Structures are given as structure tokens and as C-alpha cells.
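Exercise (ungraded).
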Amino acid sequence: MTAVRKTAKAISLTAENGIFSIEAAVNGVRGSWRVGAEDTLLSALRANGWKGVKRGCDTGECGSCTVLVDGTPELACLKLAVSAHGREITTIEGLGSPAEPHPLQEAFVEAGAVQCGFCIPGMILVSKALLDKNPEPSETQIRHALDGNLCRCTGYVKQVEAVRLAAGKIKNREVRRAGQ
Amino acid sequence: MPDNKTAFKVVNQRVNKLDSLGLACGTAEFADDWNPPRMLIGRLLYSPHAHARIKKIDTSAAERVPGVAAVLTYKNTPRIRHTTAGQGFPEPSPYDSLIFDDKMRFAGDRVAAVAAETAEAAQEALSKIKVDYEVLPAVFDILDAAKDGAPVIHDEDDAKNIPDAKHNICAAYALDIKDHEWYSTADAVIEQTYKTQYAQHCALEPHTVIAYFDADGRIVLRSSTQVPFHVRRIVAQSLGIEVRRIRVIKPRIGGGFGSKQEVFLDQACAALLLAAKRPVKMELSRKEVFVSSRTRHPAVIRLKTGVKKDGKITDLDLAITLGNGAYGAHALTVMMCSGSHTMPLYQAQNNKFTGRTVYTNLPVAGAYRGYGATQGFFALESQMDMMAEAIGMDPVEFRLKNYIKQGQGSPIFKAMGEGREGVEQVMQSCGLERCIEEGLKASGWREKRELYKKQAGAKRRGIGCACLMQGSGIPEVDMASATIKMNEDGSFNLLIGAADLGTGSDTVLAQIAAEVLGVRHCDILVYSSDTDLTPFDVGAYASSTTFISGNAVRKTAENVKTMILSVAAKILNEKPENLRLEGGRVVAASGISCPLSEVANTSLYYHDQHQIIASASHTATTSPPPFSAHCAEVEVDTETGAVAVLNYVAAVECGTAINPALAEGQNDGAVLNGLSFALTEELEFNAAGAAKNAGFRGYKIFGAYDTPPIKTILLSTYEPAGPFGAKSVSEIGINGPQPALANAIYNAVGVRLTEPPFTPDKVLAAIRAKR
Amino acid sequence: MTKISSYYLPATVREAASRLSKPGAAVIAGSTLAARNLPAGTMAAVDLRSLPLKYIKADAKGLHLGACATFSDILDSKTACAWAGGILRSAAFKVSSQLIRNMATVGGNIARPMPYNHLPPVFAALDAKVLVAAKGKTAYYQFGELAGKPLADTLGKKALIVEVLLPAATKNMRGVFEKFSKAPSMWESYALVAAALAFKNGVCSGAGVALGAAVPRVVRLAAVEAALIGSPVTEKTAGAAVSAAPDGLELGAQREYKRELLPVLIRRAIIAAAREDK
């Protein structure tokens, strides 16, 4: 059955003194944002306090700036901040906190997959999108999904294990929920 | 005396790294994750020329750009020659650097700095700085650089400690331990030249420093550094101010691997702070990290060895020339480690080492994981296979006949340290034979060697090995200290100078403290790397933290334990010698006990009040090496030259692994770094000395999909000189892949590759040449 | 970076083309290249993401790939993955980063002749047609006519790619896409080879063999194709067909190596494409 596609409405945004006013949701909170015309999504997010989005190369080649845009992992350093208008952005902070971590965050900790941690927010967000789509990925599928997120510390060995561990945690949580 | 049969409670357990959760949730703060108010952006202007003098520099237009607060050049900064190498004082590297100089020595050398309100304003100001250069002839080849007539790169009269500036030699060392006439007893003599390439560390977080004044006008540097105390001292020295005026704080760091064992950005940032009188942040771009931070030393190694038919290595003569690039950071020490951390592995009778490090007009080399041993082992472990073949012996059997065993020493240890004479030492822990055994088993060595003897088709498989050692800190040089104080609830603050760069040293050191104090590792609150609040530590390098800082922590904890038992003795009415610490309590032999909180409250509030607190320091008199055996299995496509790694096993022993999960993780990462160093990484330059591939696109480091199966097997021995038997482990793994792959490729296609990276074009050319 | 003053998200192709026709306008599709490289003087960015161009559908004419479909969209489409023996799937799969696969679009991948892009060799080998809205009309152009130059140079700055059509005849061709590089996820490759073969009664009746990366602009290897047609494909016929392949090609850096490498890669791609049991 083909889904009914909504026809989008045309949108025009005009900058005043080099600043765009946009509407976007970040980590579930909808709001108005003022962003510079030249700002990337990466610099705008960090300027607004979302420090979990990291700048590793600023040219889209390392994956440290990965955020979810409407659930899809994308490189924040390659996108203009104004392009976030009408979108839902998720950063690592939106996934969970030390008080209430997401199963992926728990799994990365337990598997020993976090060394310096700089690549980890991007890795975890990409892993979330993977598990949302493919709850029981093979090792090849995991590696293929993570192929744009560079890490120099871990050799990726424990990170692949962490994704598998997280898949198991998420499955168990759902089994338990289903049983309730 | 505990030994390797003791069941540890916290040590040798796979406890979670203390900072992992914060990092996984994005709450842990790296340098740029906290900015002071009114912060300016600092940017650098670089020389386009590989070798040039500044005839004239005019910054007036730059200074007038709106938003610019300061512009610095050689004209308005102190002219105090220093080294940028983050090493103990007095540093064994030439004092050949200035914050800004009027001579440019590589394309990427620093001309000027600007601090401005925005990055755009800073960029505009940089573009408006007018520079008149006198372009000079340049030299890029490391062998040419030392020849008569080559351009002299350091012709200044105020540099210190350059052995032969006229020949661009920034370090030289020779060692000759002669037991018999050279090669007189050898049945086979092998001589081979090897060349290793320029590489960059590629830590994911670029170098970042934020400089600001505290309320009393002291300079605070929030720096992504491995060496906070060296930063403080070298910044003070290069600015001509007192150490007490500076505080260095290391937040979380996004990797370093040696590139942040260097003080080159901090003094420029501090200088901008002093000029602008407002906080300044300097964060290098990725391209700047590749070109203008630090790299691995490229090297040319000529190795000549003699061997007898029975397998004894009679003669070992290693001559190495390393390229330091434009400045001499780590020139002597990396060069010496290429011999001191490699030659003792095998008990050769004649030993000769001739090393020199040269200046070239190329990016500056510095500390990089492996630190000379990487280059040395590529040559040595390749040659081991060549020698074995020359006498018709199996390469593993050959290594087993020659390697240094428990109880043995080497004349090299005493003669060669790191920048100075070394210390005599005898192996108190050596598990290399078990590493070899486990490595061979896990890789299916014997079956595969047999299977691969007969192959047909375009794709050929092979399996090769390499054996390795490293060190654990620099004996009689590296020092670490710790302070532990006790809190009401039986928790402890552990203050350490040691720098956790993602290695997990905060956790490892907490585990050591917890083991002594009978608590859980999470009962230890770690605060590290703040020059005002934590006691001295040389910093994270030379694989020293677990071994040296760990012992300092253990000693400190023992002192705290003594104080606790003294208070508890009065509470429990027992003699201190009848008391032990266990499960967060003080327990008497009789069975009565009290919680640590009671001890704490008694000491803080009730009676004979005092703070239970202790500090201790440690230096080592030895540097016990970890040992490792690597096995690599490859498939070589003889029609395209492509080398696919099918399997890689690294068996490593580091004494007691304080945290096996962290030790494995270190080894996995080191091995993968070594693999892409062997197969794809190389910083390339054009004819004018400018880097051609200074970015992740052209300089390929492996991603998750490129990574072959890697298995780390952790074995344990017991090192009596280490805390709970531990040695260090973070460097050794990177040294294996280049030689192991070279040996595997030889096994597959009979071609000996001596110039990594082993890219398809080079492999194919070598295969064709052989035919 | 260029400071734009307007950001448009048009909902229809007509509106997008109209926006683009104003001076100082530039297109942003997947945002992997254009957004950080807007030409100097750009005043308005025209973001295509709201256009109804993310479709991937097959009909009697062939496989229609909307210009805003991404590599991930291709990988999610069963129809696209099955087309021409999986050549399109392979090209999408081998793009070197999940993030880029999520962002980069079909249109963006062919709008400028970047030698390392994956889709140009595939579209060249399959004789693809490109639907372009330009100069007031919307028409199909042969990919071969457009490849090698920026679309803006050929059809004007206001040209907008609407879709790429893979002809129906290519559906059951046996196709293979090979990427040879220092490491699988390295964007810069030594060579990209797209080979699509059609068979009738065991004999090769049609061939499209195209080369990218090793040469500055994607090129159809017409001589190789001609040599294959009319015979069954074997190691021998494939070897003979490719032997002259590097001749006349601008190989640039490492040309000696590429001269040896290319016949091997192309031969292997042809053999792999010809295998019945894929």
C-alpha cells in the first residue's frame, strides 16, 4: 500500500542584517531560533549549548558532527543552520542523560567502547538510526552503517560489540513491555 | 607480597571507565565545550614558502579591521628560544623555536597571529597582513639535508643544543658494543635499507587552547594537552614570565597519541591573551593539524646483521636517519628509542647503533605512539624473517632462539636510554613466549604456513609475524605524584597530575587506590591534570602512566591506609597491625569492624581532629617492557597489487592488566592505527614542500568498514616493580603491523617490501620487478 | 562563506526553476557540497528538499529516479536494488560514508563532473536519460551528452534536474559496479567501473562499459563494448576486449600503474556481470 504523500508548502525565509529567524525542534523542544546566514548547523547547535555535537574536521569527512535530522543521521558541518527550519534535530543530549541513559549509551559504556569519547555522540546517533530500521543487524551491516564515523582510539572492535549489545537490550525492553 | 595468583578485588577487573557515561551522553566537557565570556577567536597566518626570511611585515591594515583586538608577529613577542617538546626539564631537544620568528622553515610555519571578535574578522585580518619574503633554497630529502652544501635551516645564533647546525643535524648518537670482530662468526650477513613515511596522529579532536585571566590576573590555559605541567613551564619560559603566573587545566581530550605532547599552541594563545587582554580561543582546523601540529618522524634505516646457521644472531648494526622537519622536537629521544626499545629484544653479541636526526624544510615531527620503536621494529622484524630464510630456519623458531628471557638483561639497556644513558635492567617479567604460542594458535599459523606453500591463481595468501617490546616510562627521569584525602562518607578524592587522554588512566589509577583502600573504584573521586590543584606528573607519554603514576597512587593510598588504621585502632581498641581494609570497612582479625565513615567522622570532627590525607611520589629505576607477538594473514591480488588483511591477532602481556577491557581497547586501537599506517597512510608533499593531502579525504585512516578482523589476546605476567604487577601497554601495539604485513606479503608472493605504505601500486610494481 | 539573504524551500519544480532564474540564486540539493561552496555573490539559496522528487518507481519506460532521491533511498528500494543485476545497488552501497549516503542526491551526483562520484559511470553504461527543466521546457537528454561538463554550462544556470530515467531495456541486463581504492571507504578511488551486459541465446547482444575516477571525466569504453557484442563472454573474449582499454585515455597521476590495472578491473567486471548465477 503506497503511503499518501503530503504536498509540501513552499517556504521563503529572508535574513535581516544577516540573521535568519527559523522554527525548529531540537531534542523535542520546538522553538524559534536566530541563526547567522553563514552559520553551519554545527556551529549554530554548539552556540546554542548543544556541545555534544563535535567539530572534528568541519568538512564532512569524520562524522563527529553527526546529528539526526527528522531521524536520519546527517553531517551538521555541511548543512547551513537555516536549513534546520521546519525540521526535528536530535543531538546526543536528546537521546539520554547520565540519570536516564538510552540503551545505546549504556551499551557503549558496558562494552568498553568509549575511550576519548570524541567520536561517540556521532557513533551512537548513527547506531540508533540503524537499530530503528534494522533491530538485529549483522556485523557487516553494523560496520557499513558506521563507516562514516572515524575513531582513532578503539579500532572499532568494542564499538561493534556495543551496538550488538544495545540491540539485545532494546529487544529485551520491548519484550518486557509487550508482556506488561 | 602479592603475586599473579592473588585474587584482586578491583585491580584486574573490567570495571566501567569512570567518565564513559558522561562521554556517551555528551555531558563530558572537552576544551571547546566551555567558553569564557567575551572570548576572542585566535587564528594563525602561515608561510606559503618552505624556506624564507621575512624581509618586511606590515600588520597595520590588519590591526584596523573592525573587531580585531591584537596582531602578533616576531616584532612584538618575546624572542626566547625554547623547545616545543613536552619533556622533562632540561629537555633533551634543541632550543630552536620561537613563538614567532622572522625566518620561515616550512610551508606551514607560523608568521603571525590575530585575535578578533569573530572568525570572519580574524580571517580578514590575516588576509590583510602584508609580508615580503626573501625565498631561500629548501631541502626536503632527509639524506640530502645532511650533505655539504645543503641549505642551512637553523642558522640563528641563539639556538642551543644543535649538534651540527651547518649540516642540519639536530641530534646524533652512536653506540658500539663489540664482542668479537664484526661478522667474523656469521654464516650469513644481511644488509637492507628500509624507509618509513610521514604520518599524522589524526586524533579526532583538533588541538585547542583557551587562554583567560582569573580574578587575580593569572593566566589560565584550558588546554587539550597530554602534558599540563610541561605546558606551564614552557609557556612561562617562552614568554619570560614566572611559572606561578600560569595555571594549566586539562579537560577531557579527544585523543592525542603524542601530537598533544607538545607545547606549540599554548604560548601563542597566552601571548594573544596578554596583548588583547581578553580571553582567546585557538582551535586548529583539520588541515592545520595535519600540517602545522606534529607528525611521525620519517626514517631511513640501514640494518646490517650477521647470523649463524644454528640461529644465533651474532651481529646487529642499526643505522638510522630520521627527519624532524623544520624544528627539532623529540629529535634525540625518538632516535634513541628506535634502538633502545628494539635491539634488546634479541640477544645479539655485537651491537652497534648509529643515529642522527636531521632538519628538513617540511612539517615538524614529534612524539607519536611508538616513538621511534615503530620505525626500528619495521626494520628489525622484517630482517628477522630475512635472516631466518637465509639459514633455512622457521621464522618463529628463529625468534624463540634469540629473544630476551626472564632473568636476562641487555647491554643496550645500560648504554641507551631516552636522550641519555639508560639503566641496567634485567627482565623480571617476560611473557613473550606465551604471547607467541597464543598468537600462533589463534591465527592458525602452522596450518596456514603449510597450506600456503602451494597456491595457484591470481590471489595469493600468506601469514607473517612480528615480535615486539616497548618500555614503561623513562627510568630515573619520569616522576609522578598523587594526593588522596578522605571524606565523611568513606569516599576519597584522588588528585593526580596524570593526564587521561582517553586511555582511561583516571579509572586505572582509581582502581589502584581502591584496591589498597578496600573500596570500590567508584568510591574514588578522581580529579586530574590541573597544575594548581593536582601534584606533579610528567604527563601521558612513554607508556608511563600505569607504571609510574600507578605506583605513586599505590604509595599514596598505602600512606592513607596507615592513617586510617591508626584512627580505627583507637575506635576498635585494636592494634593497627591486626586491622585490614575490606568492603568499605576496617576489619579486625577478631571479626569486629567499623565503617570507613566512622573513621572519617572521628578524624574530622570528634577527636584528635585532622584531615586524613597523604601525598607520595614515584620515579622508577627500571622501565620493564611489555611484550607482544603479532600474526597477520593477508591475501595479495597479484594482478592489482591490492593487499587485503584477512585476520590480525595481537597477543600482548603487560604484567597485571589493571583493567583488562581498557588494556584490550588500547591494543585494538594501536593495532588498527598500525594497519592503516602500513597500508594507506602517508602525508605527501609537492615539489615546493606543501602538503598535498592534508585532510581525511586524501589521507586515509581506517573506518569501521575498512577494519579487518582484529583480535587482542591479553596475557598476564607479574612485574614486581609495577603496581600490583602492572606494566604499561598503550604504545606497543602500533609497532607490529608494518613488519607483520611485510612478512605476510613475503610469505604470499615472495616479494620483500621495504617502503610502506604498501599501496596497490607499490605492491604491483614490486611483484612485476621480481618476475 | 557567502552570506545569503534569502532561503527558499519551493514546493514545485516550476517554483524552483523560477527562483533559480533570478540572479544570485544557487541550488542546494543534498547539502554535501553546495551549501559550503556557494559561488561568491550568491544571494538566495534554493533548497530542493520539499520538491516531490524523492520517488523511485518503475513503469513501461523504465526506472525513474527522482533527482532528490538519496543513495539511502536507492538502497531502501527493492526495485532499484534489483535493476540491471544490482549495478545501482552496488554503486550506492559503495559510497564511502553512511552520512553521505543519507544526504547526497541522484541529481547532485551528476550535476557537476566530480571524477570520484559513483552514479556517472552507471548512468553512462546504462544509456540513462536525464529529465531537465531548463529554458522554459522540461525534456529528456542523453546522459552522455551532459556528462563531462557542469550542467550549468550545458543547459544554463537555471537548469534543474528532475529525474534520471534508466531505460526499460536495461532492467534485465546483468550489471556490475566495481570500485578499486586503497581502502573500501576511501572516497578517492583509483578506478570506478560500471559494466552492464545484455544476452540473447548466450551471446552478448548489448554492452555498456564505463570508467570513472581513473580519468577526469566519465568515459564509455566503446571499443570494449564493440568487441564484446556478438560473442559469448568468456575469460578469453573479455581479456581480448579490454586489452586496448587504456589506450587514448587521459590517465593523469600514476598512469603506468593504471595502465596495468584497468584491463584487469574491467575484465573482472565483465566476467562478473556475465555470470548467470548471481
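Further reading is listed at the end of the chapter. For now, observe: The mean pLDDT of chain B is 96. Chain B has three domains: 41-136+207-283, 299-474+622-770, 479-619.
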